[in-house]
Amino acid sequence: MSVRVEHLSIAYRTRSGDVCPVDDVSFSVADGEIMGLAGESGSGKSTLGTSLIYLDARMRCLGGMVELDGQRLPIADSRAMRPYRMTEVSLIPQYAMSALNPTRKVRQLIADLLRSHGVRDREVMAELKRRIALVGLGQDVLDRYSFELSGGMRQRVTLLISTLLDPSLLIADEVTSALDVSTQRAVGEMMMEFRDRGISKSMIVITHDLSILAQVADSILVMYAGRLAERASTGTIIEAPLHPYTQLLLASLPEVGVRYDQTTLTGIPGRPPSLANPPEGCRFRARCPFAFDRCATTPPFEEVAPGHFVACWKAAA
Amino acid sequence: MTSLLRIDRLSKLYGTSRLGGGLVPALRQVSFDIDGGEVVTLIGESGSGKTTLGRIILRLTSASSGQVSFDGQDISAYSGPRLREYYRHVQGVFQDPFSSYNPIYRADRVFELVRASYFGQLPRPRWQDKIEAALHAVALNPGDVLGRYPHQLSGGQQQRLLIARALLLDVKLLIADEIISMLDASTRVDILNLLISLKRSGLAILFITHDLSLGHYVSDRTVILRRGAVVEMGDTVEVFGHPRHPYTRNLLTAVPELHKKWRRPDAGTAADPGGGAAADPPPAASSVARRRRWPARTAQHDGALEPPPLVPVGPGHLAAESEP
Description:
By secondary structure, chain A is of the alpha/beta class. Helices cover 30% and strands 25% of the residues of chain A. In chain A, strands 6-7-8-3-9-10-12-11 form an eight-stranded mixed beta sheet, sandwiched between helices.
């Protein structure tokens, strides 16, 4: 087991009390697995992803534990986490533009990072050059500033930097959302390539776009309002989802070949509940077409078939 | 009958900031029409010029050459009251709804601004009725949105409110530039269905997007833009069903689909149900991205702006010969 997360809860401090976008979350990611983490905005998926590497001043770990390769990660202690960042856990942030310092050339950025981790750049230069070629960039990219690069190139540069020290776990937060389809595909294929070559052992790919996950992920974890809704292999989630939320999410995706005059797609009525004051019981209850009395109590996140977990009274019955 | 909007050999050159100057073409002789009550999707990757085209139609940018005519009238000379009259019929909604609002005012102030410009004479109760009718048309409950601040509304609500604002006017053409790319999948579809119902009531829409599946879902006709020039256009079913230009085919193979995996170079044994697309070389995806930048050119090289001509390739379907 490469990554094991147990009963993790993360809260944001606000003036009106704690808001808990990650509420008692448990899952694991195997070696060589790409796990997709999906959900609407505000579902807590980004908070979950970033909490595995960096808790900022507003965030607090309320409990739970994270284990990487059998070793416990001190996620609540930012200073103790330092040696793990980049080398064991790494993150490709959502906005590549703001992740890259515009006043430094890519070469200087990389040198700074390596120095702060006590690695001499000569040791990794040869490998870096090989990887630049692998992702289809020219070597001249090292001598460019981030603003001279296109969106797709920037995203590739952040991928290179994040994986330079071969992290065991790579977290990619919405890395494809702002890209065009052809660049999206290139970045998606690169992530698979990095996994296949063992550059990064396991990955968590966070996105609201299930069709990207259908391409790159081995398994998918669906979150709703801070809790886990469903977890299964990609094939099962796409072809035979059990949670009504997953089903509705899939039904709302238009595919090429679907047109309004033949099929009318439906969205999900309503919006996710406020996490400042979450409702009792199943949090999807208010929007769920199948809700019944029992949904007033929280359904457990249970394994209903090997490797298929779901938190729904109807589905588990 | 003349079309509602006619775009005729429209070009736009932007100056570059690089030393030595030079002009970069954002649009190269783009021509197409939009009829009343028609949804036309304009598909292009970033840098293809799709947003520039929308901005020229909305008179937010001027064209370098070519003409945009609305109801048979050239719009470029409009100013003052005539421009205001034009905006009564043509309105735009953009990608980021939040930046369309001033966060320190309540969201419905956007309605008041319309009232100040166009309906100063209208008595308050009739104005209220008008707002409620517009909100009703975009499926918003007035009680949920009126008097709220922008941050209290969801992205979908903000976007609907902006569409409602356009509907207050006697709008005939809506320029919708990436209006749903920032929304969640679950709310996207509702906005799309709203556009379709507005179309059915006679509104023409230019739907600008980089998302092929969304474009396919809503539109009657599709225009595919690459490096500022139209490479393929025609009936949506025809363009998506029988794409002729290699660029269009490449885009279609890159679309992530739920039930079909991208073909990977090493997965050569996997059967490909894609039919025609199977003949294409595998992922040219990254090369598309790399080639996208058009080299800066000086104004003297105007001849190089000439895009390859469009030739008919099917019923109501035009495609360009491929460019190097």
